[in-house]
# Entry
Amino acid sequence: MSVRDLLDMAKRNLLARKLRTGLTLLGVVIGCVSIILMLSFGYGISANNRRMMESFGDVKNISVTVDDSGREGAGKAQKNLTARSVQDLENIPHVVDATPVYNANVQVTYRKYQSDFLSITAMDKETYSKMGWHMKNGSLFHGNGEGEILFGSKVVDDFYDPKAPAPSDSDDMDPDEKKETPPPFEASGKTLTFSGANFNMDFGMGGPAPSSSSSDDAKTADLKVAGVIDRTKKMEYDNTAFMTIDGFETFSEKLGLPAPEKNRFDTVQVRVDDAENAEDVSHAIEDLGYKPNGMLDIIKEMDKSMSIINAIFAGIGSISFIVAAIGIANTMIMSIYERTKEIGVMKVIGASIQDIQKLFLTEAAMIGFIGGILGVTMSLLLSWGFNVLGNQFAASQGAEETIVLSYIPFWLVLVALVFSTLVGVAAGYFPAKRAMNLSALDAIRSD
# Structure
């Protein structure tokens, strides 16, 4: 019996009992929708978590610190980060840049505006040309960057007028007065005054510089904003100001603070050419005796936690598939009882027992496959609907970014179709075996 003949006979037999076939298909559809949607919610949570973590920092950046895990009790000597270490890190395959990193928090004033807590990051000048940033206005540093600073896109939003009246939350207040004050100035090209009164700086292995408790005694330094970086949607960049290391040394000297150490660092930033190579680079950094910390490591830990949740979701959804498999088996068994004489006739006219088994397995597989197609289609529609409603609600709450409540990857669609078909075949195996073992004479004599 050819494959085409099997499909035609299976189709006729299923259509002959439309109601029973339809109810069995409905069970498969419900099972398929249940497991796909349950998994899609888990993958949606994972996608939102990944995007949230990527908004904090760049996955291509790896922060390298001293590995002091074995300093006490294990007799392991601490390996410091030095200028030679930076060269070794830069020679790792897929690394495009390695630079010492210095951080500071300062108070800034511009005319009547001020920002109480500005985060500054200083790196090698060559590093900035490899970051892939686009400038909103202005440009990158000139010369060695002394006397200049680069602003992230949201730095200016933190400036305010300290003499302005505090905003009121009163309901009877004029709506126009309750609006947020727009950025007070375009930063590019402006010269700002930086104060050491609220200064807190990390100077490598030398330790933090002492803070001044009196703003009257605080020294100041003026810096020109060379440019403003276009929005990157990463807090690490958008909410930070940047300087060159040469400019940072002069800057700290003007504020009367100890200069950063030049050959001993607390942190070195390594940038890889592609996020897919970040894991290999991290292993290479560990082999050198240092401790890598990157956004990708955090994301992977979150993915591990979500894999457990996805497994729970899949287990809950699979219950419906088990019920659907029982329905398919019941349908095929009832079909055997109703078609006992037909089976006997098929055997008498020369049909092999393998052909009879293939016929029933084909019918069961068709139920599973068609139910899978309908289930996948309905799952995609429901997933789209959930995402639309979720984003409408998020927008009504003032959210700027889109959210993903349900995410169905393409491979899940393929797996669902294959799985539903295999469930159909597995559910029809024993009924098909029963039909194959029926005696031809007993089958013909049955009513």
